[in-house]
Design brief:
Elements (H helix, E strand, L loop, with lengths): L10 H42 L1 H26 L4 H33 L1 H18 L4 H5 L1 H6 L1 H20 L1 H14 L3 H8 L2 H42 L5 H11 L6 H16 L4 H26 L7 H35 L5 H7 L3
Length: 367
């Protein structure tokens, strides 16, 4: 009785049966399409919220990753029988002093660059005009008019000072960052206990394991990046002082900062000192040697040492890294580009621990 076939049904009944079967089979496809469209709308709305609330969300994320970076030092001090409050204060104070020193050096280097730029302005105009004319890709009126205004001392000084203004704005949020960091470092100790009280044992254990993995991978990534960036800045400063390149400290700080941006940061950091070397000396060889040494530093530190220290922990697709740099850079600027990889790594780990989103983690992986 249950195995009815359309052959035994009257023609109208068989027709209705076929229509109902087609409708039932097409329903999941429509539901999947609706889910995809709703997901796209949610992502667009989320991007808008992140852009509008960047004044609060960005300091919180900076504080979160700063807490990941400082937590090993706090743990080490507590193992040496230093009270947790004292250990947290010591780590935060040391970081604050380091940031203030970097800010002073950056401001001093930028001021010296603004004062010394007029010596390079005429040579820079001639070099770019000669290059553009030889390649014949710019209209003559643009070369004469807009290019001269772009390279004028006032324009360059305004661009540098606006960049300093962005840095000052960031340091203005430093108090908010430190408040967030203090609460994060203090709350990290009791977080597993609270999770076990809020959820059943199996779910709580899965959440704790996920958070532990995020902590380990981000600490490895951020610690390795900070160490490699510091060594890169020291080597760049020594290199530029040896070649007598002006504003060496400024370019070293630029290399330290941009090295946190994977793939493209170290390349962009090499452009200003190479250009200064081309303008300062009559020969092209100093610029060539500077480019060669920058390449050697980036290959040895970024291509050999950094992967060995970091291992294959993050396992992110290279295409995903580039796309995330573009997205977070568009959303939050250079700070977003520096935070792009930690954010995507955290999202990937979270998706791995949610069965319905595990396919997203697979798509984000490099293997």
């Amino acid at each position: 009785m249950l195995a009815l076939r359309c052959d035994g049904l009257p023609e109208p009944a068989a027709t209705c049966y076929n229509i109902s079967m087609q409708t039932t089979s097409s329903t999941p496809k429509i539901e999947n399409l609706v889910v995809i469209l709703l997901g796209v709308l949610v992502l667009i709305a989320l991007a808008g919220v992140l852009h509008l609330l960047r004044g609060i969300i960005l300091p919180f994320l900076v504080a979160l990753f700063l807490a990941y970076l400082l937590e090993p030092s706090v743990r080490l001090l507590t193992r040496l029988h230093v009270p947790h409050a004292v250990a947290t204060t010591t780590a935060l104070l040391s970081t604050f002093i380091l940031l203030v020193l970097m800010g002073i050096l950056l401001y001093t280097g930028a001021q010296s660059f603004v004062k010394g730029y007029p010596l390079y302005e005429a040579k820079l105009r001639a070099l770019i005009a000669l290059t553009a004319a030889s390649l014949d890709f710019l209209p003559a009126e643009w070369q004469i008019g807009d290019l001269n205004r772009l390279l004028a001392s006032k324009s360059v000084a305004g661009a540098v000072l606006s960049s300093l203004g962005s840095f000052v704005t960031f340091t203005g949020h430093l108090l908010l960052v430190y408040i967030f960091t203090i609460f994060i470092l203090v709350g990290q100790r009791r977080l597993p206990e609270r999770i076990h009280k809020a959820f059943d044992f199996e779910q709580a254990q899965r959440i704790c394991d996920m958070l532990e993995r995020i902590t380990q991978e981000l600490q490895t990534y951020l610690g390795t990046k900070a160490f490699i960036s510091l060594v890169t800045a020291i080597l760049v400063n020594v290199l530029l002082v040896f070649f007598d390149i002006d504003f060496a400290i400024l370019w070293a700080l630029l290399a330290f900062t941009l090295n946190f941006i994977p793939s493209i940061g170290s390349t962009f950091a090499a452009i200003p000192p190479i250009l200064i070397a081309m303008l300062k000396f009559d020969s092209i060889m100093p610029a060539v040697w500077v480019a060669v040494y920058f390449t050697v530093i980036n290959v040895v530190l970024g291509g050999l040492i950094e992967p060995k220290l970091m291992g294959q922990r993050l396992n992110l697709s290279p295409l995903l890294v580039i796309l995330s740099l573009l997205f977070w850079g568009w959303l939050w600027g250079i700070t977003g580009m520096a935070l792009a990889v930690p954010i995507m790594a955290s999202i990937k780990i979270v998706c791995e621990n949610i069965p319905q989103l595990r396919f997203v983690s697979v798509l984000m992986s490099s293997k």
